[in-house]
Specification:
This protein has 376 residues and is α/β, with parallel strands linked by helices. It is built from 14 helices and twelve strands. Helix 1 packs across helix 2 and helix 6 packs antiparallel against helix 11 (269-289). The protein binds adenosine-5'-triphosphate and ligand AH0. It comes from Vreelandella janggokensis.
Length: 376
């Protein structure tokens, strides 16, 4: 007998700090997770600035942390309530809300010899109180405690979503950072995945500094410049790009001062933007070329905000002539909703005491049940 699907909400606010994505997902035993509804809550400028400051400041007060966390949590709660209203659902009909929280620092290999840590601002107690829903949160730290990178985590969800398709699949998420999933055609070969490096984070920062606004629409400004091969080579020299998986990264490594340290001084701003777009494309291509399969005819499913950037996609296509590009929309999941969907699925895994991580991806000592549960 088939079991009825249950409803979960996934909340994701990524490293781009562009907003909170809420996805309503039906999860049943016999079918892949299904996307039923979505809601995007734009990040107000004040909260965007607060969070950006927390990501990069040398010193932060507890009061600043608390204020940002509170504002962030209230925005999440509004997103959940608006999604429930739009879908005519009550909190009792939701099994759980999976909340990623806002990453403000990620140091899975420790910092200056200190302990490994990853910090997501989140207040699942307040979120449960404000929404009346069960909340599952703190997904990353159990993987870290088991010796893993705590990121990326979406690979297990990619497997649940796309793993039933024929042949090899690559899934590329182009968010603030880019991460890759390889689903081998042979189910005995473990799934591989890792962060390839920056995707939009440097593009956004450089655009904002020189053009104003949050991002370079369709990569038009990048397309107007020329790649500076010497700058590209200096950027690609960063040790992260040589590091074997498991690997994950964040704003700690790739930020505006890091870029500016590599400039010779004669580059024009549009050429720098073109070079940054090329850096994303080349680092993704290098990540794919390292994978042990024939590459020919592989399907590459692209998701995340960078999938809307025509210039970036053209650069990727030029470096990956063997791949057939596909949109996840053909599987019922538009590109912007995969990550939020992942956290709905991870909440389901937690409630069913099932593992959420893939040790072959994060490097953890074994599969682990991720996250804590906060009753309404
Ligand atoms: N039309 C577009 N043209 C160019 N870039 C775009 C477009 N739409 C979105 N983006 C880029 O996508 C970014 C947002 O992507 P996304 O929401 O996937 O990031 P994220 O979830 O914050 O990141 P991460 O996956 O690293 O956590 C924007 O900051 C912008 O750089
Ligand atoms: C520490 C952290 O928040 N990492 C994010 C970030 O954004 C993309 C990439 O870097 C990935 O490692 C991860 O997010 C997705 C959701 C993941 O864990 O799969």
């Amino acid at each position: 007998m088939k079991s009825a699907p249950h409803y979960y909400i996934g909340l994701m606010s990524g490293t781009s700090l562009d907003g909170i994505d809420a996805a309503l997902v039906a999860i049943g035993r016999d079918t892949p997770p299904q996307l039923l509804g979505t809601l995007a809550a734009e990040m107000p400028d004040t909260l965007h600035e607060q969070l950006l400051h927390l990501c990069h400041a040398q010193e932060v007060s507890f009061a600043e942390l608390a204020a940002a966390e509170d504002a962030f949590c209230r925005l999440q709660a509004e997103a959940v309530k608006a999604l429930l209203t739009a879908q005519q659902l009550s909190p009792e009909q939701i099994q759980a809300v999976g909340s990623h929280g806002q990453t403000v620092e990620h140091a899975p290999d420790g910092h200056n010899g200190g302990p490994a840590y990853t910090l997501q601002l989140d207040n699942p107690s307040l979120l449960a109180e404000l929404t009346g829903c069960t909340v599952v949160a703190d997904f990353r730290r159990r993987d870290l405690a088991a010796g893993g990178q705590a990121a990326p985590l979406a690979q297990a969800f990619h497997q649940a979503l796309f793993g039933r398709q024929e042949g090899e699949q690559l899934i590329l998420n182009l968010g603030g950072f880019a991460n890759l999933t390889w689903l081998p055609s042979n189910s005995k070969t473990p799934v591989t995945g890792f962060d390839t490096g920056p995707a939009n984070v440097l593009l956004d920062a450089w655009f904002s500094k020189h053009q104003g606004g949050r991002f370079d629409q369709n990569g038009a400004w990048a397309a107007s410049g020329n790649v500076d091969p010497e700058l590209l080579e200096r950027l690609l020299d960063a040790p992260f790009f040589q590091q074997p998986p498991p690997r994950s990264t964040g704003r700690e490594l790739f930020h505006l001062p890091w870029l500016e340290r590599h400039l010779a001084g004669h580059e024009t701003p549009d050429d720098v933007q073109a070079t940054l777009a090329e850096l994303t494309a080349v680092s993704v291509a290098q990540g794919i070329q390292q994978l042990p399969f024939s590459h020919q005819g592989v399907t590459l499913i692209t998701c995340g905000g960078g999938a809307h950037n025509a210039d970036l996609m053209a650069r990727l296509a030029a470096h990956l002539p063997f791949a057939t590009f596909a949109s996840p929309s053909s599987y019922g999941w538009p590109e912007d909703w995969i990550e939020a969907g992942a956290f709905a699925w991870l909440a389901h895994q937690r409630l069913h005491q099932l593992p959420g991580n893939l040790p072959s991806v994060t490097g953890a000592r074994g599969p682990r049940v991720l996250g804590g549960v906060y009753a309404p």
